[in-house]
Amino acid sequence: MENLGLLLIFWYGILHAFGPDHLTAIADFSIGKSKKKTMTITALFAVGHGLTLFIFAKILDTYNISESLLGYGDIISASVILAMGVYLLFMVFDDRIQLKKHNHHGKEHIHIWFGKNHEHDNNSDTASAFTVGALMGIGGVRGMLVTLGMVEANSVNMTMVFAFSLGVMVIFVGFGSVILYINKNLLNSKQNLKRVFATAGVISIVVGSNMLLA
């Protein structure tokens, strides 16, 4: 019965990861990135998400916190998505998304970077992905606790949260592979690059606004 419970928790993690806010956040961070960085971003987003879920699940498992206070977690998640959408549109309209083609050993290589100046080895996006994943985890705590409560009678433990986070990571990494396909096949010109980022920005604003108004 315990294994069945963990399997159900894993399945709920998969369903939870399909939320439009999660997929939107991953897309915002990983569009235009290399394969290694895209996979790193999706993994760090999942780790940050799972870590926050565990910490807050343990807090809520011990202390009785009002529903109105828990609702602020949803507001935080929605605000993060909305802010990222606004930022992406700002990047597009202020011409801060750059693309340049290089030739290495007779093979064309497309280099994408962000900002007015060309910078190398900027790891701020990976750190930001972890932070955003952690912030958005606050909004998913209530749903996870309800599911864990239906599956297990005891309190939340690390094994349960690991099963949930593993389900989340499966979808996040899978979606990262979709972004990799977009990066490789669609981002071959600056015009296409701006269109993709503008679309991601608009979707982020729509998803974030819908979450705030729901």
What can you tell me about this protein's structure?
The chain has helices spanning 2-17, 20-30, 35-62, 67-93, 124-137, 141-151, 158-185, 190-213; strands spanning 97-104, 107-114. The chain has 8 helices and 2 strands. A two-stranded antiparallel ribbon has the order 1-2. β1 and β2 form a beta hairpin. The protein is globular, with a radius of gyration of 19 Å. It has 214 residues and is mostly helical.
Question: What tags apply to this protein structure?
Answer:
globular, two-stranded antiparallel ribbon, mainly alpha, 214 residues
Helix and strand layout, with pairings?
Elements: H1 2-17, H2 20-30, H3 35-62, H4 67-93, E1 97-104, E2 107-114, H5 124-137, H6 141-151, H7 158-185, H8 190-213
Helix pairs in contact: 1-6, 1-7, 2-4, 2-5, 2-7, 2-8, 3-5, 3-6, 3-7, 4-5, 4-8
Q: How do the SSEs run, as a string of H and E?
A: HHHHEEHHHH
Indicate the radius of gyration in whole angstroms. Answer: 19 Å
Q: How many individual helices?
A: 8
Structural class estimated from helices and strands: mainly alpha
The order of strands across the largest sheet is: 1-2
Fraction of residues in helix: over 70%
How does the major sheet shape up? 2 strands, antiparallel
Distance between the termini: 36 Å
* 3D shape: globular
Share of residues in strands: 5-15%
Low-confidence regions? none
DSSP strand count: 2
Mean pLDDT: 77
